[in-house]
Amino acid sequence: MNCIRVNTGIPYDVLIRRGILRDAGAEIKKVKPNTRLAVITDSNVSPLYLHTLLNSLEQAGYRDIPSFTMPAGESTKSLENAGLLYQLLSQAKISRDCCLIALGGGVIGDLTGFVASTYLRGIPFIQIPTTLLAQVDSSVGGKTAVNLPTGKNLVGTFWQPSLVLCDPDTLSTLPEDVFADGVAEAIKCGMIKDAVLFDLLAHQDPQTHLEEIISRCICVKRDVVEKDEHDTGDRMLLNFGHTMGHAVENWMQYQQRHGQCVAVGMVMMVRAQVAAGMLAPTVLEKLLQICQKYCLPVSCSACWEDLFEICRQDKKSTTKGIRAILLRSIGDSYIQPFSFEEFKTFLRGGDQQ
Ligand SMILES: NC(=O)c1ccc[n+]([C@@H]2O[C@H](COP(=O)([O-])OP(=O)(O)OC[C@H]3O[C@@H](n4cnc5c(N)ncnc54)[C@H](O)[C@@H]3O)[C@@H](O)[C@H]2O)c1
Ligand SMILES: [Zn+2]
């Protein structure tokens, strides 16, 4: 088993092992003994894994565990559902000394974390991520959020989990496109900080190396989160490919998956850097090859001018310009501030390449 300690304000462990879901009760007991638990999950995950989790919790001696199954899908991450959960938790007499468990993908993790951080001014929660994206990315780092009709993740908190349990076996039931979303984030982690991870993804069968891939991604995320828990500096490196990726997502009216849009975003940035003579052309070749291996798209039908305008108007852009994430090589990244005009010229170069 891999155990990764994340040293944020209150430190916590991320445990990665095939089959750990069956031992969740024993692991949770080590960090939350004599605590009442409540589980939040979604309608796809519930029939697959809720029973195993509840069994394991009961075997470890936990009793009277309410579970709440939310509809699967991004629209579940809403203030309305947070409100509904506050009521359900209160009716189930969940008090300040209880602990929530998020069993599901990033949607359930973000919603449960948000509810945990605000209900009764904050109660502990545990993440049991069941998508690759949630295992390599969203379950670690303590960002929680719900969406508003005007945009994604616009209301949220920083609230670290007490424990994260990653069971790679749960990924066997994921639809292929959902799995590929997580691969795109793993490629991103390799590109920004871990060339060995990138090579592993490029040359090996990911299914036989899941524990190592997940662990390496979590180490990348841990390193930046420990330096910058509240996202004011280094943590931005995790946005590699995301500035343009979010623009693509927006342009596609959220009809294309996040990982696919991030792949397009990474390619656009690398292409522009190569065109500007800032990066070796082999980096672009390797990125294109790895995207092909995982059936991730490398371009989209939007023109770069439209995507640039979306970036400029993004609610999360500053008024001064864009802080882009660039590469020195695979595994080595940095933050580069651009004015909007400079960024426009940079993107134009990539388009002409
Ligand atoms: N907090 C963060 O730092 C952070 C980082 C990245 C992404 N996110 C958020 O994560 C969300 C996306 O996460 P996601 O891709 O996991 O989406 P998701 O939670 O919607 O899961 C994707 C789909 O897979 C299903 N599913 C989950 N586990 C399954 C399993 N083991 N077998 C079969 N089906 C399963 C879900 O029901 C859903 O239909 C977005 O809302 C995004 O904003 C948060
Ligand atoms: Zn992402």
List key phrases describing it.
353 residues; alpha/beta; Rossmann fold; Dehydroquinate synthase-like, alpha domain; 2 domains; seven-stranded mixed β-sheet; two-stranded antiparallel sheet; 47% helix; binds nicotinamide-adenine-dinucleotide; binds zinc ion
**Helical amount among residues, as a percent range?**
40-55%
Secondary-structure element string:
EEHEHEHEHEHEEEHHHHHHHEEH
Note poorly predicted spans. Answer: none
The name of the CATH topology of the largest domain is Dehydroquinate synthase-like, alpha domain
Q: What is the strand tally?
A: 11
The chain-level structural class is alpha/beta
What is the CATH superfamily of the largest domain? Dehydroquinate synthase-like - alpha domain
Shape: globular
Evaluate the radius of gyration. 20 Å
Strand content: 15-25%
List cofactors, ions and other ligands: nicotinamide-adenine-dinucleotide, zinc ion
Largest sheet: 7 strands, mixed
Summarize the structure.
This protein has 353 residues and is an alpha/beta fold. It folds into 2 domains: 2-90 and 100-147 and 157-174, 3-Layer(aba) Sandwich (Rossmann fold); 177-226 and 236-352, Dehydroquinate synthase-like - alpha domain (Dehydroquinate synthase-like, alpha domain).
